[in-house]
User: What shape does this take?
Amino acid sequence: MRKSQVAARGVAVVLAGAAALVGLCSCDEKPADVSETKTVEPTVKAETPAAETPTAPDTAAADEATAALLEVLIYDLGRRAADNAGHPELNGGVRNMLEVLLKYRDAKKDSMAGTIEALRLNMLLADTTRNLTAWQRACGFYDEARAAYDALPQEVRELPENKSRLSSICNGKAFCLMRSGDMEQALELYGEALVIDNDLYTPLAPEGGTIPQEATVSPELSKAAEALLSSYRCLGECQLAADDPEEGRVTLKRGIDMAVTLNRLTPGMHMQYIRLLVSMGNLESICGNEQEVYRNWLKALEMCQLLVKSTPDPVLRNRASAAFQGLLPHVKALHERLNPTEPAPEQPAAEQPAPEQPAAAPQLPVGL
Assistant: This one.
């Protein structure tokens, strides 16, 4: 049995166990009443000790422990389930966990009304269903997540982390609508997400748009820049799918220009820059501009190599390596046509051989 199969089955067992535990944690049944249990009274009377003041249970610590457990069981493992929804060996386990989470949400619906938990849980259900490619059902969950956001107090809605969640809801539903063929509404939602992400990034943006080499990049700036770069790519790809390549080119170029101007990219920003370059290459390929395709994909190859060497994050390193593997044969084929007298890009020695026969224009996985 291959290691990947063993690992997949291991994750499936974890998902099944997590689903069972979530069910237990959400159980509202009362414990059995032990007051009816009869005991034999001793015949010898003992001296009655002085009554002690009962100690109140530490409910705060218990509540904190329960919240920490549910955080792991629902959101951590739930997110892992969503990310692995497309894996054939995990699909059944993910669907089972989805239904358990749905029952948990419905059981807690009244107590969660108007809370962040309702927002987060509906977003998790929506993202998981989207990754299972159930577009219509996912749209329903995204609508419930939007309603949960709207039910929050105004000051809570305006918090950056919750505005970011609203952007994710818009992006997630737009993706489902685009896959379903509803381009008009998808474009509207992608545009709304771009406005939100730009509003979140602007107060954090470095002076002149460039991060100095000696500066420390805050997590807030990194997250905001990564989200904005992603929104440029998503809207540009949707404009292309809606048969508007000129608008798509303008949008993708704005994202690429932003990444170039930033100059110093965190690993997450770096990955979004790669995806923008690949998307621009795809657009130019559809428009028949081979030189531009070659230029963008060659730059993407260079960025993939740089990210593989520089990031300590194994997930991003694997994604960059996979992107390199997918791009290299296409770039080689273009190079042979456009620059037949010059050496072609080569596979790094540490990498596995790339496929010999290029397929259609490369597409990076949705989860990148």
